[in-house]
Design goal:
The protein is mainly alpha-helical. It has one domain. It has eight helices and no strands. Helix 3 packs parallel to helix 7 and helix 4 runs antiparallel to helix 7. It is globular.
Length: 203
């Protein structure tokens, strides 16, 4: 009920200020408003639980590090909102705890991040059915930016002296690599390289 009210109110404002928008444009905006609502509500739930678990700051740090990679590397999305909430909760509540308490030898972390960086180079950016990355130039830019970010994370893992941050950099790369890897798409029976379904052009 709240979700429907939020979306309808947002669309009413859009139609009021931009009456020239056609139905196709309105549908895109509706999708965007729904995405904002779902993201906002999930963040409230996850960070609310994180606060009571005493890992609020750690969850935010991991989420930020992951989102920097996610912004250019993209990757699969859950087909259902509740699945996304469950997966996000599992990742951003359990992984910060692991980052806080596990100890991984520095050389192992470096080796793992080199492997992950190679995977980022091979598979980023990775698209979805709803957002196929059709433009070749943009794909190249996203790939370069993702690899640069991964390279910075690797460098930080070498020079930092904070166990939690080093682990968080590793986990952020692991999560993003998992979301863009073709094996993950295959496991969840989701179409991979969705751009080939379309004529190469401008997104």
């Amino acid at each position: 009920m709240v979700k429907k009210l939020f979306i309808n109110r947002g669309l009413s404002l859009i139609k009021e200020y931009y009456p020239e928008y056609d139905e196709k444009t309105i549908d895109r905006i509706r999708y965007g408003i729904e995405a904002v609502y779902l993201t906002f509500t999930k963040i409230i739930v996850i960070f609310g639980i994180a606060f009571f678990m005493g890992i609020f700051r750690e969850s935010i740090i991991l989420l930020l590090l992951f989102n920097v990679l996610r912004t250019t590397g993209f990757g699969l999305h859950a087909s259902k909102s509740w699945m996304c909430l469950a997966a996000s909760s599992l990742i951003f509540l359990c992984c910060p705890l692991l980052c806080m308490y596990i100890t991984i030898p520095r050389y192992i972390i470096i080796l793992l991040e080199i492997v992950l960086l190679i995977n980022l180079y091979l598979y980023a950016p990775s698209d979805t059915v709803k957002r196929p990355l059709k433009n070749k130039k943009k794909r190249l830019i996203y790939k370069v930016l993702t690899c640069i970010t991964g390279g910075v994370y690797l460098l930080l893992s070498v020079i930092l002296d904070n166990g939690f941050l080093i682990n968080s950099l590793l986990f952020a790369m692991m999560i993003e690599t998992g979301l863009i890897h073709p094996l993950t798409y295959k496991i969840f029976n989701l179409p991979y390289r969705n751009r080939i379904r379309y004529v190469i052009g401008t997104v």
